[in-house]
Each structure stands twice: as C-alpha cells, then as structure tokens.
C-alpha cells in the first residue's frame, strides 16, 4: 500500500491542560503502533500542527476520525501526498509543546529539546518546511486561546 | 574535468542528431553552495539546444527525451555529481508514456545516483492539461523519492491555481516574471504572492535567468533561496562548472 503523509493544522476549541494532552497522546500512541502509523503533534499557543504518516487508507481513516474530534476546530488539511520514506519513523506520535522561537531553534538543528525530540535531525523535506512555516505563524489562529498550565 | 563525448558520429538510430549535455549550477544563497545542476541538451561540440532540436518532429523530440536523460545521468555521474540533478521532461514521457521513464530510473541505479537526487522538471502547460492525471502520475515518481519541479511557473494561464491541485517540490519562476523585478511593481506583487503561497505549502522556489545583482538582491529580500543564471554560473559543456556567489545579500 502506498506510504503517504497527511499534514493538518487546527486550533484548540477550549483551553486544554497539558495533562489532558498527554493522556490523548498516550492513547493515540498505542492505537498508532497497531496501525503502522507514525508522526508528530506540535502544539504552539493554542494551535496544533500534526503529521500523520503511514499506509494511505489507514492515514485517511485516522484523519477522518481526528477531524471529528470536538476538542479542536478549524481543521485545515495542508497536504496529503505519497512519501518515499517516513520522516518520523521512530515516533508513534512525537510531541512538542513550545513557543515559536524554540520550535524554530529545534528545527534549525539547535538541540533545544535534546536528542530525544522528534524535531531533532529532521531531513529537509515537506514536513520540515511546513513545520517552519507553522512556527513562523502560518496556519495558526492569530488570536490563539491560552492553554491552561502551559 | 573532461568527459568522454557521449555520442560519437553524426546521426543516431531513430534519426537523432548527435548530442551531448551541458550542466548549469543552481546555487543556494544562504549556504553559498551549489545545490544542484540542470542538464541542458547541447550539440556534439557544445552548440546550443536549438541546433539539436531544429528540424526534429515531435516523435523524434520524444525519442531524444527518452534516450537523453539516461545519458545525462551517466555523464553527470562520471563527472562526480556531488548534488541534485535537474532533468527536463517532455509531457510525452512524464505523463503519457510512463514506461519511457524506465531507462532513466535504470540509469540512475546503474550509475549510483540515488533517486532522491533526481529532480524532474515539467512545464506548467504539461501540468494543467489534466491536473488530476498529472498529479497521479507524478506522485508515483515522488513515492520513489524523485522530486518534481514546475518549470516556467507563472508563464501560463494556470499559475497559482495549479497549486490547488498539485503541490510540487519546487517551482521555477518564469524568466519573464523575474526580469527587471527590482524596479517593476506588478512583477514584484506577483512574485511575492507566489513566494508566499510556496512558503505556506513547503514548496521550494528557484529563480532562474538571473543576470543582475539587483534582481538577486530583491529576490533574496523576499526569501527566495535558490538561484540559477549567468550571475552565478553559465552552463559548462560536458562539465560541472563552479559557481560565483555575489558578495552582498547572500548571507542569511
């Protein structure tokens, strides 16, 4: 089956505590491992950016389900396309919650979050370029709601 | 570094004239390195592409396209290609007759050029004839790791609308859009819009045909990172020439 990635942005529909985010992530990691899906979730000031990569039909089904989740809104599919190889193959779902300058520093090769961050050593492909655009304010809600406990 | 001429004699099977390749650098402004070379068809003694293509009917242009790419890959490999290689593709090969690409893929494997180092250049016209069919075919190559560049972007009637249907890896700004841009308001507005859309979609922009430092400065100012043109280096016949980097405005 064709390997694809689907990359989208969205906004928290209400403030989400980091603890709640962690719980969502734990569940998605277990589910994704069984589906051969990998990727990452980036949280910046109330906006989300997620990369889902895996077999085309499973990624499509997962994205459909995610789109229905009421904990976020304004879901925008940025790109869905075939991939020669995964960018986050080691991550059932990597997660970073940070401010834009920190994200840009990490993408730029500064090991801001340490070597165990999913932003570390990213190869120069679409995911990295879109992450850069997101960190610079594209695809983000301009007046993002605050995240409790962030 | 000299390369053995690719093709001896004057006429090839299939009625093709003898031909060879020149390679022109595409440079990165921020790293001041050569990012890629574009293979450009030439006559056997370095004559311009026109001298090879003149008098060829459409069928023979397609044959040249099919048999030429493997030769360009072989020659670039022999010259020690250290970066990406851009290859022009006729619509016939790219979209209509995908089996025409088999020799190209085989040549890359035979010469140790990873498919991730190949960039297929297609014109905007090719892409807009049938968006969905084009995207489907081309995405097959992308799944192999080959990158797709849309050449002469902004020259046709489609322009940015193309990006609603298909998001290439790279667009090459049409020469006419870039010429004299430092003092031309409408071109600046259009190029700024293209650059913004490409940034949002993770598409790299190459400005080609750059001859003046003013054009280069304006384009780096709006974030264009990759350049091709006489300002940096002319095509080198059967060689991978070095490039020169303008002194100012090239540092990040």
Characterization of the model:
Chain A has 150 residues and is of the alpha+beta class. Chain A has a domain at 3-97: Alpha-Beta Plaits, CATH 3.30.70.100. Chain A contains four helices and five strands. Chain A has helices at 18-35, 56-68, 100-107, 126-135; strands spanning 3-12, 38-44, 47-55, 72-82, 94-97. A five-stranded mixed sheet of chain A has the order 4-1-3-2-5, sandwiched between helices. In chain A, α3 (100-107) packs antiparallel against α4 (126-135). The longest helix of chain A is centred in the N-terminal third of the chain and has 18 residues, at 18-35. The termini of chain A are far apart. Residues 143-150 of chain A have low confidence and may be disordered. Chain B is α/β, with parallel strands linked by helices. Chain B has one domain (16-233): TIM Barrel (Alpha-Beta Barrel). Chain B has helices spanning 49-53, 58-78, 91-96, 102-110, 124-129, 131-143, 162-165, 175-178, 185-200, 213-221, and strands spanning 11-12, 16-17, 20-28, 33-42, 84-88, 118-123, 147-153, 170-173, 204-207, 226-227, 236-237. Chain B has an eight-stranded mixed barrel with strand order 3-4-5-6-7-8-9-10. In chain B, strands 1-2 form a two-stranded antiparallel ribbon. The longest helix of chain B has 21 residues, at 58-78. Chain B is globular, with a radius of gyration of 18 Å.
């Amino acid at each position: 089956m064709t390997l694809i990635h689907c990359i989208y942005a969205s906004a928290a529909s209400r403030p989400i505590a980091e603890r709640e985010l962690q719980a969502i992530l734990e569940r998605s990691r277990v589910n994704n491992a069984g589906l051969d899906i990998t990727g990452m979730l980036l949280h910046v000031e109330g906006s989300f950016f997620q990369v889902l990569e895996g077999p085309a039909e499973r990624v499509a089904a997962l994205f459909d389900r995610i789109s229905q989740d009421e904990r976020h809104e304004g879901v925008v599919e940025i790109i869905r396309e075939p991939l020669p190889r995964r960018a986050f193959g080691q991550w059932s779902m990597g997660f970073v919650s940070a401010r834009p300058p920190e994200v840009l520093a990490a993408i730029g090769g500064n090991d801001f979050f340490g070597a165990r961050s999913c932003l570390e050593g990213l190869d120069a492909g679409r995911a990295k370029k879109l992450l850069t655009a997101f960190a610079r304010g594209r695809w983000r809600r301009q007046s993002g709601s605050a995240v409790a406990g962030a | 570094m000299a390369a053995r001429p690719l093709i001896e004699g004057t006429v090839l099977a299939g009625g093709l004239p003898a031909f060879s390749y020149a390679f022109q650098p595409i440079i990165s402004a921020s790293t001041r390195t050569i990012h890629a070379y574009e293979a450009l068809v030439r006559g056997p003694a370095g004559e311009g592409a026109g001298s090879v293509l003149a008098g060829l009917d459409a069928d023979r242009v397609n044959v040249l396209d099919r048999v030429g790419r493997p030769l360009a890959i072989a020659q670039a490999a022999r010259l020690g290609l250290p970066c990406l290689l851009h290859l022009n593709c006729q619509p016939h090969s790219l979209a209509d007759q995908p089996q025409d690409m088999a020799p190209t893929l085989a040549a890359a494997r035979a010469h140790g050029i990873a498919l991730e180092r190949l960039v297929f250049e297609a014109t905007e016209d090719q892409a807009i004839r049938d968006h969905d069919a084009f995207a489907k075919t081309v995405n097959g190559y992308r799944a192999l790791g080959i990158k797709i560049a849309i050449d002469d972007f902004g020259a046709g009637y489609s322009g940015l609308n193309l990006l609603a249907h298909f998001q290439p890896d790279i667009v090459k700004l049409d020469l006419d859009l870039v010429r004299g841009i430092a003092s031309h308001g409408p071109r600046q507005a259009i190029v700024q819009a293209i650059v913004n859309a490409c940034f949002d979609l993770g598409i790299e922009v190459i400005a080609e045909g750059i001859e003046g430092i003013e054009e280069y400065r304006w384009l780096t100012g709006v974030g264009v990172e990759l350049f091709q043109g006489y300002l940096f280096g002319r095509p080198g016949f059967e060689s991978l020439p070095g490039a020169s980097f303008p002194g100012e405005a090239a540092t990040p």
